[in-house]
Design brief:
Rossmann fold; five-stranded parallel β-sheet; about 10% strand; membrane; transmembrane helix; transmembrane; AAA_16
Amino acid sequence: MRVSRARAGVWLSRSSAIPRPLRPCLAFAVIRAQRRCLQLPYGPQTPGPPDAGPVESEDDAPKKGSSGSDAGNGQSRFDWKGTAFKMTEAALTTFASVAILGAVGYGYTRYYKYMILEKMEHAFDPGDPVLDIAATAKQGSATGGHVLVDEEKQREHWVLRKEQALIDRIVAGEVRGQYHLIVGEKGTGKSSMLIDAMAKIDGEGCAMLEAHANPEIFRIRLGKALDFEFHEDNMGSLFSIRGPRDAGALLDVERAFNKLEKVALKRRHEIGRPLILIFNSMHLLRDDDDGKDLLELIQQRAEQWSASNLATVIFNSDDYWIYERLKQYATRMNVLRILDLDKQKSITALRNYRTRYRNDQPSESLLEQVYDKVGGRMSYLNRVAKADDMLKKAEDICRAEKTWFLNQCWILGAEMDDDVMDQQKYASAAMVLAKALVDLEKEMEKTYDAEQGHILPEIPLHKARQIMTRADFIQSYDAINIFAIDSNANVRPDSVPMMNAFREICSEEGFDEFLEATLDRIGDIESLGRTRELTIKDLWDGGKYRVKMQDKELTFECEKPEEEEEGDDKSKGKADDDGDDDEALGKAQHVVAEAYQKYLESQKKK
C-alpha cells in the first residue's frame, strides 16, 4: 500500500516542474532568504518589537563615522543639486501656469470687447423688434394685412399727416447736425409717425426704446435696444473679479453710450450716415434729481453726436417740462410741434376709413357732428371710425373726459373740512383756470372756422400762473391731461372734449357762487391758521383793558371799574386789600404788555 501511494504521488506530480517531495524544501529556502533580507532571526518569532540587530562596538564607531562622513558630504552635494532642480522645475511650472492663465484671460477680454461691438453693430441691422410688435398690433386693426409695409415701402395709412415727410427724412439720416424734440398732446400720432418712418427703411441704422421713471428699468431697456448686457455676461465674475456693474444705473448708461460712440465712428467711416436713436415717452421720467441727471446725460451726448454727425437723437414727449428742461442747454435742438388735425383732414380721414374697411358712406352732416364733439385728435378719430355708432362713441368720449376732470379737480364748497384744504387748493386752481378759459372763449371773435375747425382759447403760461395764484400746479395738470402747454408756452385745454367739459361745468347754475364759496372757505382756513389768540383772565367786574399802538410802540393799560362812594366806616383791612389789588394789577399789566410785545416782534420777523 505504501509503495502504491508513493508511486501514485509521483505519478500525480508528473505534470509539475518540481516533484512534490521537493516542494517543502524550496518553500523553506524562500522563507530563509526573506528573513535574511529583512534581518530577522531564524525560527519562530516571539511577541514584541523586532530585534534591532547586533550592537556595534565603540571601536568600530569611529571608523564607520569617518567613512560615513565622506559618504554624507557626497550625498549632501547631490541633495542640493536635486533640490535646486526641483525648485527650478516648480518655479517654471508655476510661471507657465500663470502665463497661460494670463494669456487666456487677456484673449478672452479682447474677444469679449470685440463681441460687444459686434453685437451692438448687429442691433442696427435691418429689422427691429419695435417693427415686429407694431406689425402684430396692426394686423387686425388698421392695415388688415400680414405685413408691415406694402410693395412700395409705404404703410397703409388711413390718414397721412403733413409732418410725416420731415420725420421720414430725419429717420433716414438725411437731416444732420441736429437732434430733435417731438412734442404734442397724447394721441396726436407722434409714435405712429416714427414707426412709419422706421418701417420705410426697415429699421436699418435705427434703435428705439421706451423711457421709464425707474433708472434701472431705463438701463435695461437701453441695453435691449442696443444689444448690450452691461458686462453682466462676463465670465470674470466666476473668478470673483469685481465687474463694472457694481455702480449705479446712470454710469451704466454712460458706458453704453461709450460703446455706441465707437460703433457710430465705424459706421460713419464705412457708410457715411449717422445712427438714429429714438427715446419714446420721455415724459415718463420723474421730475426729480435722478430724472434730471439722466436727461442731462442724454442731452450732452445728443449735442456732441449731432455736432460730429455720429448719431441723431430724437426725443418724443407729451409734456412741456421736458422741453423746459432741454431748453436750458440746447444749442442744436430742433422742436417739432404736433397738433390735432384740422376739420377737412379729419372728415376726409373718417370718410375714407369707413368706406374702405366698413363699406359705409356716412353723410357730411354726421361727420361734422362727430368732429364737433371729438375734434381732430388722432386717437379719438381712430376709436370713432371703428365704432358701429360713431355719434354715440363720440358722446362717450366727451362724457369720459368730463368725468376724468371732475374726479381729479372737483371742489367741495363752503362746508369742506379743513383737512382737505391742500387738495382743494389744487382743485380750485384748476377750476379757476378752466373758468378763465371759458370766459376768454366768450370774448374771442372767432372760435370755429369752416376749414380749420375748432380754435381753442389760449393763455400765456405766466398769465395762467397769475390767474391760479400758484406756479407749481400747471405741470401736474399737464401730466394728467387736463390742460396742455405747447412749445410756445401757451396754456389751453388738452382736447376738444375737455373744452366741451369746461363749458358744461362752468355753465351750470350756481357754479360761480359755489366756486366763490370754496375760495372763501380756503381763505378762512388759511387765516385761521395764521391767527394767534391771546386770552386775558381775572378781570374785575366792569374792568377794562386799554391797548394803544403809536409809532410801532405798544401801550397796555388796565382801567379800574367805577367805584361807588362808600362811607367812612370802611375797615382798615379793606384798605389793605385794595392796596394788594393795585399791586397785582400792575404786575398783570406788565406781564401782558411784554407778552404782546414779543408776539408783535415775532410777527414782524415772519
